[in-house]
Design goal:
417 residues; alpha+beta; four-stranded antiparallel β-sheet; 6 helices; 25 strands; rod-shaped
Length: 417
């Protein structure tokens, strides 16, 4: 278009400088729009990312909360006590015969022949006493016996003479009866003197202290020169010796009332001692008290235990295992029990993995297991070691058993492979 045409239209031609300025402004506006659009897109992307991240975190938090709120448990089955049970009870070994050896005669200990740990046979000499007083009493009793014998001889000869005179009617019958009575009295005096001499001779024989039975000397309480009083051995602490028979031995145990009816005479038992590892000793029930002690609610049982080798020592602490006949009751682990104010409970898991608390009645306690007399039928799954917070209706999941890792091979085997 010419300049004249522009003039006619009233359009002023642009100055070249102004045209360039206008072009620059348009470029700036275009770039600004592009920048604004990019920024808006970035902001929108950031907002979308934040929203997505929050949604994902919320879902993850919810899933983690549900996972942590879920209780993982291990369960055990209910067993029947069809197998025999073993009741372990503590006991103390005692000599089958255990007696303090005391002196019957009084005097001084002259000599002792056996010390602690000595094995003696029946009738073997243990000690001797010096009894001067008893010796003098015996001598006096012998002299009194001789006097009584002389008096008897005189009374006999007198009776013989008076009987001859009575036949001649030289004396009265009364006088003859008096002489006969004196003769009988002299005979009684002689018998009493003989009895006294015999008693003192027996006391004299007690100067020799002998073993009343075969056994082991477990205590010696006197030494040479000690004054020994007759009959002072009423207590073991004042006895001369303590003698114990070590074969067989006795063990006394107290069986609780709930097991008393299951223990019978002649029943075999197993005795173990902690210090004698790996060794078991078989005995049998010799006798029972056949009654329950009202104080302890238990029955005393005596066990006879052979000890031919002398391995077991009297006074040792042992464990006596009594095998019991099965009762047929249900048996559960003690780890499944809950003790609350409602009583003894067990936590079972139903088909929907929900907790169901059941009250049970406990019978005999076998240590790691107990009998359940009532409350469960036998087909339940019981929770092992239930927490104190477990409640009726809680949802639980079953914990998986951790598989043991295989043992690492020795370096030599690794080299071979």
């Amino acid at each position: 278009m010419s300049q004249e045409r522009h003039s006619q239209l009233g359009i002023h031609p642009l100055d070249p400088g102004e045209a360039g300025e206008l072009l620059k402004r348009r470029q700036i506006v275009r770039r600004t729009r592009i920048v604004v659009i990019v920024v808006m897109l970035l902001l929108a992307a950031g907002a979308a990312r934040t929203v997505v991240s929050r949604v994902f975190n919320a879902r993850e938090l919810e899933a983690g909360t549900v996972e942590r709120a879920r209780q993982y448990v291990k369960t055990a089955t209910v067993n029947s006590s069809g197998a025999s049970q073993t009741l372990s009870l503590p006991g103390t070994l005692q000599g089958y015969v255990q007696s303090p050896i005391s002196a019957r005669a009084g005097g001084y200990l002259k000599r002792w022949y056996k010390d602690i740990g000595s094995r003696v046979e029946k009738g073997e000499l243990l000690a001797e006493l010096d009894t001067p007083e008893t010796d003098q009493q015996l001598s006096q009793a012998i002299a009194a016996r001789q006097q009584a014998a002389s008096s008897l001889d005189l009374a006999k000869s007198t009776v013989d003479r008076w009987e001859a005179l009575r036949k001649k009617d030289a004396v009265s019958q009364q006088e003859l009866d008096e002489r006969r009575s004196a003769f009988a009295q002299a005979g009684s005096n002689l018998a009493a003197a003989d009895a006294n001499v015999g008693r003192l001779r027996q006391v004299e024989g007690f100067k020799r202290i002998v073993a009343p039975f075969a056994g082991v000397i477990t205590r010696r309480n006197v030494d040479v020169g000690d004054l020994v009083d007759p009959g002072s051995g009423g207590g073991a602490a004042r006895a001369l010796f303590m003698l114990s028979q070590t074969d067989p031995l006795r063990v006394y145990v107290n069986v609780p009332q709930s097991y008393a009816n299951l223990v019978k005479q002649g029943q075999k038992v197993v005795v173990t001692q902690t210090e004698l590892r790996g060794q078991k000793f078989e005995g049998k029930v010799a006798r029972t008290a056949a009654s329950i002690d009202t104080t302890t609610r238990s029955m005393q049982v005596e066990v006879a235990l052979p000890n031919p080798d002398g391995i077991l020592l009297p006074g040792a602490f042992v464990q006596v295992a009594l095998p019991l006949k099965p009762s047929g009751a249900l048996v559960v682990s003690t780890d499944t029990l809950l003790f609350r104010r409602d009583g003894t409970l067990v936590a079972t898991v139903d088909a929907g993995n929900r907790v169901r608390l059941k009250r049970v009645q406990i019978g005999r306690n076998f240590g790691q297991t107990v009998e359940v007399l009532d409350g469960i039928s036998g087909n339940e799954r019981l929770i092992l070691n239930p927490s104190d917070s477990v409640a009726e209706g809680d949802e639980v999941a079953f914990a998986t058993e951790a598989q043991p890792k295989p043992a690492a091979k020795p370096p030599a085997e690794q080299g071979k492979s």
